[in-house]
Structure formats: structure tokens, C-alpha cells
Design brief:
This protein is mostly helical. It has one domain. Helix content is 59%, strand content 0%. The longest helix has 33 residues. The protein is elongated, with a radius of gyration of 26 Å. 2% of the residues are buried.
Amino acid sequence: MLFASLVWFRSTVFLENIHPLLGGYIRLKGRKNRRPGYPIESFWIYYVKRFADFFRYSVGMIQLVSEMYGLVRTATLPEFADYEDIATKPETTETAGGLSLIQKQKRAVVA
């Protein structure tokens, strides 16, 4: 479910250039729903443009899903399973020495 939400939000921002809550795979745009002052496009021109937009969006979605799936697969490889960030490791005597330097620097700044 999280992967689908990430794809959805990323696709609307990067492929449609709109807010994620305004987008959709098939957006309901009517040929006659135009701003005042703009002429209504002909039937053929409008639907050729809509098909081109839909095709471009579909190709972009395929590329985006494959890119994000590759990132997920890379992150779940066995060699990354035992990775532990230094910020989440328990404090040891080696890391405590580094923290004392930070404390000395803070005292020097205050003084």
C-alpha cells in the first residue's frame, strides 16, 4: 500500500505537474469545459491531444514504477540487511570520544 501511494504522489507531481490530490490516471476533462474566452477545440484535435497525453502519461508511469521498483529491490538486497546508521547505534567508548569534542566546541562557543 505504501509503494502504491508513493508512486501515485510522485507521478502526479512529476508527470502531470499538479498536486497529488488533484491528479488521477484518467482525469475527467471535457472537450467543452474550457475557460471563458477560449474557443472549443474540434472533436478530432481534442481527442488526438487527449490520446497523446494519456500515452505520454502511461509511458511515464511505466518508467516511474520500474525506477521505484528497482530502488526498493536494491534496498532489500541481503548485503544491506545488516546496515546500521551511526545515529541509531548504541553509544560505545569509541563514539563517546567524538561526542566530547562536540561538547567542548559548544562550551567554547558559549564562552
